[in-house]
Every structure is written in C-alpha cells, then in structure tokens.
Structure prediction request, 418 residues.
Amino acid sequence: MAQLQKVAVIGLGYVGLPLAVALAKSQAVTGFDINVERVSELRAGHDRTNELTSDDLKASDLAVTSDPSDIQGCDIYIVAVPTPVDEAKNPDLAAVTGASTLVGDVMAKGAIVVFESTVYPGVTEDVCGPALEAASNLECGKDFYLGYSPERINPGDKVHTVDKITKVVAGQTPEVAEILTKLYGAMNNGDIFVAKSIRAAEAAKVIENSQRDINIAFINEVAMIFDRMGLPVQDVLEAAGTKWNFLKFSPGLVGGHCIGVDPFYLAHAAKAHGHDPEIILAGRRINDGMSAYITERVHELLDNRQSDILVLGLTFKENVPDLRNSQVRSIVDGLAALGHRVQVHDPLADPVEADRHYGITLQKSLSDDYDCIIGAVAHDEYKNITPENLIKPGGLIADLKAIWPDAATSDVCRYWSL
Ligand SMILES: NC(=O)c1ccc[n+]([C@@H]2O[C@H](COP(=O)([O-])OP(=O)(O)OC[C@H]3O[C@@H](n4cnc5c(N)ncnc54)[C@H](O)[C@@H]3O)[C@@H](O)[C@H]2O)c1
Prediction:
C-alpha cells in the first residue's frame, strides 16, 4: 500500500502496542501514551505486557511519544484506551473522552478518528464525536470523520495475533470504510469485514465477549451442580464434548479487562433502552460469585481448620502478566479472612504491582509442607510441577483449572477440581 497516511495510535497497552507495531510495517505510525513510564520502557525495548519481545520493538519503525505535539496533524488517529467500569459497574468512559479531547486538540481538517476500545453501541458517534468537536471546533462528518474497528486479540495467545485475525471495520462514510479497509488490510493480508455501520461494529464486539461470559457462566453453574452431586465436571464435559454441536467451555474464574467488564456495557445500553438484560447480568453474577464459591469449598474441604495454603497464580488468566480484576485475589483475601495462612506465587505477575494493587507479597521460592495448594492459573510453568511434592501427606490439591488431572488418582493427597 502506498504511504498515504500518517497514523497515530493513542494508548499503547495490550491492544494499542501490537496494533501500532503491525501497522508500522506498512505505514508511518506514531504511538502515543499518556503514561510517560510506559513510553520510556518501550523506547528502551521493554514491553511489560509481554506481548512483544525486545527484538520486535527494536525491529519496528514505530515512533513512541507522550508529547501530544508529536501527533499533530495526522491523517488517521486510532484510539485504544481502557474502557473499565466504575464501582457501580457502570461504563467509565473517562479514558475514551479524555483521548477524544486530546485528539481533538491536535487533529486537523480531514482527519479520521477510529476507536478500537470496546464500548456499547453509540459511544463513538454520541460521546466521542461531540468530544472531538468540542476540542477541535470542527464539525463531525464534514471536517473530520469517525470510524470504529473492534480489537479481537487475546493477550498471551501467540496464534491469533493482530495480523492473523479478521478485522471488522466501519466508517462514518463508505469512503472512510474504504480507507480503513486498505490501512488494516495491509497488516493482515486483506482479511477485513466491513460492518454496515459504526453501531453494528460496536455491538458486534460487545456481544462477542458477552457471549463468552454467558457460556462460561453456564459451565460454572453446572460445575457447582455436579460438585454438590460428587460428580467431576471434567468427566461430564469430556463426554458431552463428543457431540458435534456441544460448545466447549471450561469452568473457572472470569477476571481481566474484557470478559468480566464488557457485558456491563451491553447491560447499560439495554437498560438505557428499557430492556432488562436478564441473561447477561445472571452470567455476570454467577462468574463474579465463583471466587466466593471456591473459597467456601476449599475451607470446607480443609475441615474449616486454619491451614497453610499456597496459591499458584494471581494474574487474571494463564501466561499473561495482567493483574487487572484478578478474581484469585478475592480467593486469597477470603481465605485469609477465614484465618488461613495464605502464600501466593506467580512467575509472570509484577511483584511491585501485586503489592501496590492487592497488598499481596509474591513468594519467590516454594516450600514443601503446605496443607493445601490451589492451582488457580494454568501458567505453562505450572504444568510441569508435581503438586504432591509441595504438600504434606493427605494435603489438599484444589486444581481449579484442571492443570494436574493425574493428581486426581493420587493416594498421597486429596484432590478437588472445579
Ligand atoms: N486486553 C485485551 O485483551 C483486549 C482485547 C480486545 C479489546 N480490548 C479493549 O481495548 C481497549 C484497551 O485495552 P488494553 O487492554 O489495551 O488497555 P491497557 O490498559 O493495556 O492500555 C491502555 C493504554 O492507554 C493509555 N491511556 C489511558 N488513557 C489515555 C489517554 N487519554 N490518552 C492516551 N493514552 C491513554 C494507558 O496509559 C495504557 O497504556 C479497551 O477498551 C479494551 O476493552 C482489550
């Protein structure tokens, strides 16, 4: 593709950085982040999200900055900033509106502003467009244009990377959609789907993640039912999974920045339009309740006796350092509140962040005489350990992610799995 655009990517996190580096292979791209520390780490070749290696960064032509004047007058701005929920689980749009104001300040006539952040339908046109107009004194749809392209990457997944997955794009006009098709298509061999509207693209992303949440919630519910019946859910899932149209999901904790958050965006939109989102919120309730369920079950299986417990894994999922919305943290706090002595280990989490955000000191080395170990996150590193070697004879292995199925038949310990 000809170098027809100067592109800026706003927000260099799990989504923005890999995207900016992929786009920079065919395009002049400047990555901007308000976090000065993040920018200097990236300049030094270090990506703390582990999505890119130092070699990836060194080989890239991407320029990174935290100075807004470096992104003045770009042709295309791509915004990939966080969209969390507040305490009341309502959408917190402060970062997208903040980024819109920042872009509005530096953009010139003719710019296209594309949002990649996950939102509910209407945010790009009804919230970001006006914020851009207010900051720029330009008119949306006449002096500048909007686009939306949901990000589908799955951090820690080295197969479905940004250059290998179908990219949905939508533009305020067919011309904008065409420009975005060319821009993104250069990065993923033209694997682009043009959505009918910006709202349809926004809605598509939020239902993709809500659907996952609901499917996991169903499996969590059946895991709790079969647990009460003394029936290992993994045995049930293995048998049911042989049917051609049975959907394969596993029970577990749902944390992180996406699956446990995005359904609240959809629920918010539903309520704003007079619909009570029953399944969506039921799914959220079940998944948010799993840490309490696990805490109670472990306590019960330890005969309510205060014990020495080792928790393996604190991040919100396997093979990533991301600690956001870690549900393991709730289990650690819950067990500590019941009087257990709990130690936590995680090879990927940043010890400083674990301490700062959760007050948890990560263990560097492990002992061999715990009463119980909880396999909470299926980091690859944990697959090779022998859990029986870490606990006292007769101790409990709570294998939340079925990391060590062979331990189920061990005669030196007790085994419980979700
Ligand atoms: N992480 C995922 O798995 C994933 C996958 C698909 C979509 N998404 C969506 O993508 C968006 C970004 O998520 P993420 O995981 O990359 O977040 P992140 O926290 O990893 O990164 C966001 C970056 O934006 C920066 N930032 C915040 N406000 C800013 C502003 N006003 N101007 C410039 N930079 C700003 C932060 O400093 C941070 O570096 C969210 O809407 C998320 O729901 C995330």
Remarks:
- Residues 10-16, 32-35, 38, 80-83, 95, 98-99, 102, 116-118, 151, 153, 155, 257-258 surround nicotinamide-adenine-dinucleotide (CB under 6 Å).
- Residues 231-417 form a domain with the Rossmann fold fold (CATH 3.40.50.720).
